[in-house]
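Quick one from the shared queue. A colleague (R.T.) flagged SPOR domain-containing protein as missing a structural entry in our internal table.

Convert sequence to structure tokens.
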Amino acid sequence: MAKEDLKWFYDLATGKVFQGKVSGFETRMGPYDTEEEAHHAISIAAARTKAAEIWDDKED
């Protein structure tokens, strides 16, 4: 079994969490180490985006 098969993903189209690369990459977020992290995919992405924006502002 590949390591990716043990990772968790979030499907933007359905809002469901699943283990392994079940859906296509167009709507798949991840991989995440745990199911709990995958359930928080949207908030994790938002936090990462905010951190990147802050970093970009410091560079200007």
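DSSP finds two helices and three strands in the chain.
Residues 41-59 form the longest helix (19 residues).
Added to the table.
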